[in-house]
Amino acid sequence: AVVSKYATSSARHGTLDPAASLRMTHTATPTGTATAWAGINIALVKYWGKRDAAANLPAVGSLSLTLAELGTRTTVTFDPTLTDDRFELNGVARDDDARVRALLDGVRRLRCLDRRARVVSRNHVPTASGLASSASGAAALAVAAWAASGGDPTVARADAAFVDLVRRGSGSAPRSLYGGLVELDRSDGQVHPVLPPEAWNLRMVVARLAHGPKATSSREGMARTARTSPYYAAWIAAHPADLVEARAAIEARDLARLGTVMERSTARMHACMLAADPPLRYWNGRTLDALDVVAGLRAAGVGAWATMDAGPHVKVLCADADAEAVRSALCAVAPEDDLQITRPGPGAHVEPR
Ligand code: DP6
């Protein structure tokens, strides 16, 4: 039989002798089950646009914060009795999900495995609402499937082929493989941790400002923007300076500087989308109301900065000490149930059984 290079990947990293890691593969497969958690990540410096659609390589780099409280929990079981993959999301069968199947196929290819899988997934975040559940979903699925096949996800996340798989699932998903502040490189689509979650006492106050799925997927929206927005080239050209600025702000632990570049990156991304044909507008009226609240907080001396992605929701970056003030100010635009203070969280990981 062909032995995948991943069967010996822990040996390559010096943690086990080759024979032991092969045995690990063989003994782990019959058990064949693992559960993983992945937190959602919110981009501070945004990704929008692809330079290679097939490999889902981004046209720009990005820098994000992985959150602790919101995310996806997924259990994968490779089951010799199954003739087809089974996928359940939030208690509903979704067996025909092409992205899930493609990710499982990729793991099977890398691990030389042909068993079908049973996948049970639950989002602790509204699905397809623009709150990044596709990123945590792909990261949790990949990590659970990798572990269920006997592999070590903490080794795999530093491996280009594994990260390529995760990124094909969702362009922003590799960022959820690491905790805290994380950067995704434009050059090769790989990810690396910038600052661990415990290193900086940041908070992200999440205001959910609509219910139900978004009208246009990120994938479709990006393609339309690249094809039709006259500002797309300007967005790509101006982007690297935002990444440089964000790295410097993080290095200096300068929250005002980081918040400022985050708002600028957000505004430029949305301006570029608004100029697409037909225009892409993910915001609603409450988005603007929330931005007014954040501007008011800043005018009153509270350090708070807002960002939006492919949805109307507003995420406010602030210091631990200001989070409660931010949350209570946002009560003017959203009921308490739709507001949540979140903290930097760990990277996607296997949970003990
Ligand atoms: C606006 O990762 O959802 O949230 O690569 O097509 O799966 P695909 O898109 P996705 O895009 C996220 C875009 C964004 C900005 C960001 O997270 O960087």
Explained architecture:
The structure is a single chain. By secondary structure, this protein is of the alpha+beta class. Helices cover 39% and strands 24% of the residues. It has eleven helices and 14 strands. The strands form three sheets. Strands 1, 4, 5, 6, 7, 8, 9 and 14 form an eight-stranded mixed β-sheet that branches. The protein has a four-stranded antiparallel β-sheet with strand order 11-12-10-13. A two-stranded antiparallel ribbon has the order 2-3. α3 (98-111) packs antiparallel against α6 and α4 (133-148) crosses α6 (160-169). The longest helix is centred in the C-terminal third of the chain and has 20 residues, at 232-251. The radius of gyration is 20 Å and the shape is globular. The two termini are 31 Å apart. 48% of the residues are buried. Bound molecules: ligand DP6. Residues 43, 46-48, 56, 62, 134-135, 170-172, 218-219, 222, 309-310 line the site of ligand DP6. Ligand DP6 binds next to α4 and α7.
SSE blueprint and pairings:
Elements: H1 9-12, H2 18-31, E1 33-45, E2 50-52, E3 57-58, E4 62-79, E5 86-89, E6 92-93, H3 98-111, E7 116-124, H4 133-148, H5 153-156, H6 160-169, E8 181-184, E9 191-195, E10 202-207, H7 218-228, H8 232-251, H9 255-274, H10 285-299, E11 304-307, E12 314-319, H11 323-330, E13 339-342, E14 349-351
Parallel strand pairs: 5-7
Antiparallel strand pairs: 1-4, 1-14, 2-3, 4-7, 4-8, 5-6, 8-9, 10-12, 10-13, 11-12
Helix pairs in contact: 3-4, 3-6, 4-6, 8-9
Bound molecules: ligand DP6.
The site of ligand DP6 has 16 residues, from helix 4 and helix 7.
